[in-house]
Write a structure and sequence with these properties.
The chain is α+β, with helices and mostly antiparallel strands. The chain contains ten helices and six strands. The chain is globular and about 85 Å long.
Length: about 300
């Protein structure tokens, strides 16, 4: 008998994160959403929406679910035993022409995505490019691009190799940035396992990454020690970890930009005051406020 597949976290996760040909379990509530049978607390037909990245809008969007249609003669009360190829789509609420289409093999409360357009890789790659183009350049971008594409097609080990390279590059960059101030040794750092490197850099990495550093021992394994399914399961963890570092870089980049703008504004104001374009406050204006009881 087939082993029981893991149940998807949500319909949103199925549509925006699950690769082709990954067989997943579904709950009754999730099936009701996919087939347009969801109800609100009053028992009325609900119109659930999901959030995700719109490839056409180039930003996060809310999508309406155009549910799977069951042909007449195939009763809803037989849904738990349904074995069929079904299709559905979701539509961006900003523009009804922005649509993502899906094709599924449904079999006894399991679902396998067998087709999608635009592809999962196209959506994920564009989303990453739009959000992190200022902090993810050159080799790191091309490596992450390949990792996302391979994972979207179920190639776990291949995607893991590229993901590991990007993660290692980001960790090494942090080490190079702070080694002078911290007095760290290059040779010692290179001999450390990945979780040890993260521990060393704990003051310069996102706290959650440091708290969960033991899981990154997997990045120290050789290719011959890896299994495809395990690599696919780890992909989301690895990608989210990279995103966490990039978000940290974006935050620092924004703080530097804000600081620069403030200093420029202060300098501009100082120049205007020095040239007499801005009146200096009078002694009376600059003194303490007068009491209402003062004459």
């Amino acid at each position: 008998a087939d082993s029981k597949p893991q149940v998807i976290a949500s319909v949103e996760d199925l549509l925006f994160n699950t690769p082709l040909y990954a067989r997943c379990g579904v709950t009754r509530d999730q099936i009701e959403i996919l087939y347009g049978r969801a109800a609100d607390t009053f028992g009325q037909r609900a119109d659930p929406k999901i959030d995700g990245y719109c490839l056409y809008c180039k930003k996060e969007a809310t999508f309406e679910i155009n549910a799977i249609h069951i042909p007449s003669g195939d009763p809803w009360n037989n849904i738990e035993h349904r074995h069929a190829f079904d299709d559905m789509s979701i539509t961006c609420v900003r523009n009804s022409s922005h649509r993502i289409r899906y094709y599924f093999l449904v079999r006894h409360m399991t679902i396998t995505k067998v087709g999608q357009h635009p592809s999962l890789a196209d959506i994920a790659i564009d989303e990453t490019r739009q959000k992190y183009r200022t902090v993810l350049r050159g080799e790191n971008w091309s490596e992450l691009y390949k990792a996302i594409g391979l994972a979207a097609h179920g190639e776990g080990i291949g995607s893991f190799v590229y993901l590991r390279r990007v993660f290692e590059n980001l960790i090494n960059s942090r080490f190079d940035e702070f080694k002078g101030a911290e007095g760290w040794n290059d040779v010692v750092f290179k001999q450390m396992r990945m979780d040890e490197k993260i521990g060393l850099l704990k003051g310069h990495l996102p706290p959650l990454l440091v708290e969960t550093r033991k899981i990154y021992k997997i990045f120290s394994l050789g290719i011959h020690e890896l299994e495809n399914d395990a690599c696919l399961q780890f992909f989301d963890v690895g990608k989210r970890s990279i995103i966490m570092i990039l978000e940290d870089d974006l935050k620092k980049q924004q703080e530097l930009a804000d600081r620069k703008q403030l200093l420029e504004a202060v300098a501009k104001f100082g120049s205007a005051a020095a040239s007499g374009e801005v009146d200096a406050p009078s002694a009376e204006e600059s003194g303490p406020p007068r009491s209402n009881n003062q004459p």
